[in-house]
Design goal:
- This is Structural maintenance of chromosomes flexible hinge domain-containing protein 1.
- The protein is an alpha+beta fold and about 130 residues long.
- It contains three helices and four strands; from the N terminus they run αββααββ.
- About 25% of the residues lie in helices and about 20% in strands.
């Protein structure tokens, strides 16, 4: 569970790394039965993803390190950092959990809502472990 949560936080760290103002990352554990099943929410003020980037995230065995050609990457120009002590700016996913494995380790479905920083459009992806 710790590595799964670390991966989700790492995704938010990557999304907020180019922020010129304050980086905001919230982790919420939701247990209110009136709102549905228990959930983990990771909320950040990063650059957001387009609908194509959200769909690419949902492709099995398509990682930020192997996306090319027809697949639009949200990590263009990504360079894995040199080995350094782990910190808030390190590459936690270096250990290889992956976002899809992380969300489905924590629960049976994923709901991602994203608004690209340079767009007025809001995109949503809902994916069940069974469908994935």
């Amino acid at each position: 569970l710790a590595f799964a949560l670390a991966e989700l936080i790492d995704n938010s760290l990557s999304a907020t790394c180019r922020n010129t103002d304050i980086r905001s990352i919230q982790i919420k554990l939701l247990f209110d039965d009136s709102q549905g099943k228990p959930a983990v929410a990771v909320i950040d003020n990063g650059r957001g993803m387009t609908s194509k980037q959200l769909n690419n995230w949902a492709v099995y065995r398509l990682s930020k390190f192997t996306r090319q050609g027809d697949f639009e990457s949200d990590h263009s120009g990504y360079v894995r950092p040199l080995p350094v002590p782990r910190s808030l700016n390190s590459d936690i996913s270096y250990f290889g959990v992956g976002g899809k494995q992380a969300v489905f380790f924590v629960g049976q479905s994923a709901r991602m809502i994203s608004k690209p920083a340079d767009s007025q459009d809001v995109h949503e992806l809902v994916l069940s472990k069974e469908d994935f």
